[in-house]
Amino acid sequence: MTVDRLVCGVLLAATVAAAAAQAQSKRGEADPAAGHALAISACTGCHVVAPDQPFKPIWTGLPHPPDFKQIANRSDVNTAALQHHLATLPAVPQRPGMANRVLTDTQLRDVVAYIMSLRDKPAGQ
After folding, report:
1. Could you tell me the residue range of the domain that residue 50 belongs to?
2. pLDDT band at residue 125 using 50, 70 and 90 as cut-offs
3. In CATH, what number is assigned to the domain containing residue 51?
4. 5, 7, 28, 30 - which has most CB atoms within 10 Å?
5. In total, how many domains does the chain have?
6. Mean pLDDT in the chain?
7. Is residue 124 part of a domain?
8. Do both 23 and 35 map to the same domain?
9. Long-range pairs for 34-41 at CB < 8 Å and ≥24 separation?
10. In-domain check, residue 109
């Protein structure tokens, strides 16, 4: 395979992936992978977001904030409840508490989709 064909193949794959992501965004569908990336960059200071996060959270007091997997597996958590909770956090929380990160609607949907993707599946599924 020549370098030109390889470059064309990579460019074609990137174009197809970008078009798929844009179409998904236009439909208003959440993107858990984008939510994971955002959470890794914005939430790892306090939460365990994923096993692949670059560093452990810095907890300034006890109890520490829940891991994203713990949040996903709470019986009272569903997509709508989690979106509402995150969207209505105060800008300046009472101690201890979480501040509103002021996410766009798309970012909020993506982060919630990522968190909900961590929910344990029932046995046999």
Report:
1. 31-117
2. low
3. 1.10.760.10
4. 30
5. 2
6. 78
7. no
8. no
9. 34/107, 34/110, 34/114, 35/107, 35/109, 35/110, 35/111, 35/112, 35/113, 35/114, 35/115, 36/114, 38/103, 38/107, 38/110, 38/111, 38/114, 39/68, 39/111, 39/114, 39/115
10. yes
